[in-house]
UniProtKB/TrEMBL annotation:
<dbReference type="InterPro" id="IPR037069">
    <property type="entry name" value="AcylCoA_DH/ox_N_sf"/>
</dbReference>
<dbReference type="Pfam" id="PF02770">
    <property type="entry name" value="Acyl-CoA_dh_M"/>
</dbReference>
<keyword id="KW-0285">Flavoprotein</keyword>
<feature type="domain" description="Acyl-CoA dehydrogenase/oxidase C-terminal">
    <location>
        <begin position="229"/>
        <end position="377"/>
    </location>
</feature>
<keyword id="KW-0274">FAD</keyword>
<dbReference type="InterPro" id="IPR009100">
    <property type="entry name" value="AcylCoA_DH/oxidase_NM_dom_sf"/>
</dbReference>
<dbReference type="InterPro" id="IPR046373">
    <property type="entry name" value="Acyl-CoA_Oxase/DH_mid-dom_sf"/>
</dbReference>
<feature type="domain" description="Acyl-CoA oxidase/dehydrogenase middle">
    <location>
        <begin position="122"/>
        <end position="217"/>
    </location>
</feature>
<dbReference type="Pfam" id="PF00441">
    <property type="entry name" value="Acyl-CoA_dh_1"/>
</dbReference>
<protein>
    <submittedName>
        <fullName>Acyl-CoA dehydrogenase family protein</fullName>
    </submittedName>
</protein>
<dbReference type="InterPro" id="IPR006091">
    <property type="entry name" value="Acyl-CoA_Oxase/DH_mid-dom"/>
</dbReference>
<dbReference type="InterPro" id="IPR013786">
    <property type="entry name" value="AcylCoA_DH/ox_N"/>
</dbReference>
<keyword id="KW-0560">Oxidoreductase</keyword>
<dbReference type="Pfam" id="PF02771">
    <property type="entry name" value="Acyl-CoA_dh_N"/>
</dbReference>
<comment type="similarity">
    <text>Belongs to the acyl-CoA dehydrogenase family.</text>
</comment>
<dbReference type="InterPro" id="IPR036250">
    <property type="entry name" value="AcylCo_DH-like_C"/>
</dbReference>
<dbReference type="InterPro" id="IPR009075">
    <property type="entry name" value="AcylCo_DH/oxidase_C"/>
</dbReference>
């Protein structure tokens, strides 16, 4: 299993850490207060070649590996100090992954260069009544003619929707039987596509999130990604990739905070000594470090399984997401505690990390859904056969 970067990947990680620190990080606090997406840095990120790492050369990419992309993502997350911006990048990367793995050659030729060049992508599964239960999708493409359908539905809380140029829509396709969940890829200027304004969120405020309203949108076979009716399997592949990226991102973001934490532990005094000399403070720092390592290496394990085609991939990705999301909340609560009142004061910028962390328990599938996925995999792998001898009481 790969758990370390090559020298070239180390260089790429450091390159995008520096890029993020100098280009994305400045002004993060102001964008958080205003709830503004950093479109200028988004274009600069594309111009720097961030998205081309693992795209095929025939579509304008560098022809590298998934590990090349993840190295850049880890650097971006460590340097950006803007969790919302990175969350938007994770959502965008998911669309690229779906197109690379399941798109037609024509879809790749049309969309990959644009998405690598500064356009914004969004993947829309969630609906107002569905939440994490993506199989309950109600969006539907109804037959309008031969190879001609009209797509109607309402997507909710979609990352990047208010600014997205290209949309992957999870819907149902009439006329193909009970197994009808299908993926459609659309441009935002397609007739009948409407996106609402960005929601006013508690955290991740620099990641524009909002609804997509589909009102009789004309779609045809050229807009279908993957086999018709096979959308759920394709979507689950995307979600697993999405989840392992959260492990990489959370680990990198928390790692970037360790020097800040240690500086506070040295400067703040209690009972006549720096607070870092108290074991209860050391325990908090140890917990943060443990989250970093567990989230990161579970994500690496999931990525390795993905590259090798191991069916453990999905459950490992859920393990990475669970470790990252729960660990991020615990760690940022402790971060606020270490800083005391200064950590609770918005002027200090520490509380922003806690607000952003809360969203990670929901985005990309809730904590409860990750536990459900992991439990199902445990049962599949380890349940005793019906004819196995009983375990002694």
């Amino acid at each position: 299993m790969q758990i370390t970067w090559t020298p070239e990947q180390h260089a790429r990680r450091e390159r995008f850490r520096r890029f993020a620190a100098t280009t994305v990080a400045p002004g993060t606090a102001e964008r958080d207060r205003a709830g503004v997406f950093d479109s200028k840095s988004w274009q600069a990120l594309a111009d720097e070649g961030f998205w081309t790492a693992h795209l095929p050369r025939e579509y304008g990419g560098d022809g590298g590996t998934l590990w090349d992309f993840l190295a850049g993502l880890e650097g971006l997350a460590q340097g950006a100090d803007d969790s919302g911006f990175v969350l938007s990048a994770v959502a965008h990367a998911g669309l690229l992954h779906v197109l690379c793995e399941h798109g037609t050659p024509e879809q790749r030729r049309r969309l990959l260069p644009a998405l690598a060049g500064g356009a914004v992508g969004a993947t829309a599964a969630t609906e107002p009544a569905g939440g994490s239960h993506v199989a309950a999708v109600g969006t539907r493409a109804r037959v309008h003619g031969v190879d001609d359908w009209r797509l109607t539905g309402h997507k909710a809380h979609i990352t990047n929707a208010p600014v997205a140029d290209h949309l992957l829509i999870v819907g149902r396709l009439d006329g193909i039987g009970a197994r009808d969940i299908t993926l459609f890829v659309l441009d935002r200027d397609r007739p009948g596509v409407n996106t609402g304004v960005a929601e006013d969120l508690l955290g991740q405020r620099t990641s524009p999130t909002g609804p997509i309203i589909l009102d009789g949108v004309p779609v045809g076979p050229a807009d279908v990604v993957g086999p018709p009716g096979d959308g759920l399997a394709t979507l689950y592949s995307f979600l697993a990739f999405d989840r392992l990226m959260y492990g990489v991102v959370v680990a990198a973001q928390l790692e970037a905070l360790l020097p800040v934490v240690l500086r506070r532990c040295a400067e703040r005094r209690a009972f006549g000594v720096p607070i870092g000399e108290h074991e209860f403070i050391q325990d908090k720092v140890v917990g943060i470090r443990t989250t970093i390592e567990s989230a990161r290496h579970l994500a690496y394990a999931a990525a390795d399984a993905l590259v090798r085609g191991d069916d453990a991939y999905s459950a490992l990705a859920s393990c990475a997401k669970l470790a990252a999301s729960e660990g991020a909340v615990r760690s940022t609560v402790e971060l606020v505690q270490i800083f005391g009142h200064a950590g609770y004061d918005r002027a200090g910028g520490i509380e922003r990390h806690l607000r952003d962390a809360v969203a990670i328990r929901i985005a990309g599938g809730t904590t409860e859904m990750q536990k459900k996925n992991i439990y199902k995999d445990v049962v599949r792998r380890y349940a005793a056969p019906v004819d196995a001898p009983a375990v002694p009481a």
